[in-house]
Amino acid sequence: MRNELGVPLLKNAIRDSARLGYNFLSIAGEQSLFYSDLTAICRQAHQMRMLTTLTTRAGLLSSRRIDSLIHSIDLLGIRYEAGMGGNLEPVQRAGIPFALVYHLTAANMGELEPTASFAAAHGAAMLHVKPTEEMSDQNMATVWMMIECLRDIYRGELAIQLDVVNRYNPRTDAVKLDTWLPKVMEDPTLLCEAISPLVVEEDGWVSPLRHGMPRSIGFGLLRESTLVELAEAWIRHRASGFCQRYTKVLEEAPLFGDLHQLLAEHEARRSAFKVLPMKMATGL
Predict the structure, then answer these.
(1) 209-223 pLDDT, tens digit each
(2) What is the CA angle 243-266-164, rounded to 5?
(3) In Å, what is the CA distance from 154 to each residue of 119, 134, 165?
(4) Residue 70's CB: how many other CB atoms inside 10 A?
(5) Which one, of 70, 154, 77, lies nearest residue 117 by Cα?
(6) Are 206 and 218 in contact (CB under 8 A)?
(7) pLDDT digits over 268-281, tens only?
């Protein structure tokens, strides 16, 4: 979240996103904690009956800063770091529900179980596990088994979320996309059923599914049109092509491959291929 986007623009985007069916505002970037208009942005989200979350580091959370979040943030994400127990005490006293965010790599897989134990012992509502893109299929298969075991152990005590989108855990599939496409053409409020999250990047560009998605399948700039207008134009002109490409990725993806990353790579290759003949002609 950047100041140059402006509070009015962001508030309008939040209002429009609620009209499009979205009910959760996730504020990215650790430094967003210091955004001067964070309270106003979250208030707008709450007025639209959206929940809010922000992820940061425990070391950045002074008591004063935590107090300012009590009525703004519904779930506070805190990046897990060794020796952070003392830094969690002000959060616990404030009563803000919090999730520990664990960035999982092949090297620290062995620490997943004690991290879950730490999260439960310190009153976390959730352990949010975010694997790196470099994790092998074999490692991911092991992680899936570990996560299921931990969910059984901490059922009713600690929610455990594995932040991956792959063929084993897709958010949509080819059949659902085929059903969704004609419906969303008639009713844009169904956009969120297949396009989630909807990302507003630092410059105001709106991307589907993840930050940095190739702009050839993006929605456009908030400075040029409202979010509702961008969404309606995207549905008319790009939704069909998006569904075709996503379906192709679903067909070809390895079992544990990140579908959103694979879609971004597929679209980048497709865009480069389209530009290539133009470059060749220019060189003649």
Answers:
(1) 999 999 999 999 999
(2) 75
(3) 10, 28, 23
(4) 11
(5) 154
(6) yes
(7) 998 776 654 544 44
